[in-house]
Amino acid sequence: MSELQAYAQQALQLIDLTSLNLDDTEQTIIDLCTAANTDYGHVAAVCVYPKFVALARGTLDKLGLTDVKVATVTNFPSGEESLTTIIKETNKAVADGADEVDVVLPYRAFMKGDLEHCEQVLTKSKAACGDKTLLKVIIESGEMLDDSFIKAASEFAIDCGVDFIKTSTGKVPVNATLEAADIMLAAINTNNPNVGFKAAGGIRTANEAKSYLKLAEDKLGKDWINPAHFRFGASSLLGNLVDCLNGKQTASETGTSTY
Ligand SMILES: O=C[C@H](O)COP(=O)(O)O
To answer: Which GO terms describe its cellular component (predicted)?
Structure first.
């Protein structure tokens, strides 16, 4: 196994295999759950809109994929739903069997200084998740006006007691970047290494995944990287990793490592 294949194997088990498209159907979600298992093992989770949580759980269980988690999203993607709507969505997702809820930080409100609203969203979402469902907070790093907001939002979310901080919705022009990941991983390292990190949006190749994994190794150590601490939110990374593991790819198809 090459070094890149070793990273591809590691990345595969860290994927939140995502389908968050407005035209998703029940069949899309069944196909997503089926794709969650590969010859090289299964992904960490599938990530779907709230209305598909129960279907995803039922489908994964029928396929014998009981260890694959179901993640969903709230306040997504704008970050501008009311607190009441966010908590209603969270309660329903938990009741339907969501293992993880990815809530969008009200990032525009955060940058305007409305920290009280942001705190309410995060702490009340965490309370609604209870002690069995993880709360992952999407900072939307690509929309932050400068890097200081990425650091501040990461630290704010960690202080609010969330389980993961996540870069992006995948729905804005700039999604996961190594620069944002570096700032967020540093915030985790300094403030609470029990908090996890999720790189999401635009990650499509084995070499890109390797770059994020090497960054996390450098910041928090190899042993820190496991599904409890590190995820890739991605809709089209899995196929590239499997091709890499099959030895089917040329160097250009595995992408360029930038770290
Ligand atoms: O949270 C995950 C993202 O929405 C996935 O983005 P992607 O479709 O660019 O992989």
So the answer is: cytoplasm
Listed in order, strand segments (DSSP E) in 159-219 are 164-166, 196-200
Relative to beta strand 41-42, strand 37-38 is antiparallel
Dihedral (C-alpha) 25, 31, 37, 43: value to the nearest 10 degrees? -30
Pocket lined around ligand 1, Cβ cut-off 6 Å: 18, 20, 47, 169-170, 200-202, 233-236
Q: Which atom of ligand 1 is the closest one to the Cα of 175?
A: 9
Beta-bridge partners for 15: 232
Could you tell me the residue ranges of all domains in the chain?
A: 3-249
Catalytic residues: 102, 166, 198
Which residue type occupies 11?
Answer: A
Spatial contact of 4 and 207, defined as CB atoms under 8 Å apart: yes
| pLDDT per residue as tens digits for the range 133-155 | 999 999 999 999 999 999 999 99
CATH topology of domain 3-249: TIM Barrel (3.20.20)
> Using one digit for the tens of pLDDT, what is the confidence trace for 71-89?
999 999 999 999 999 999 9
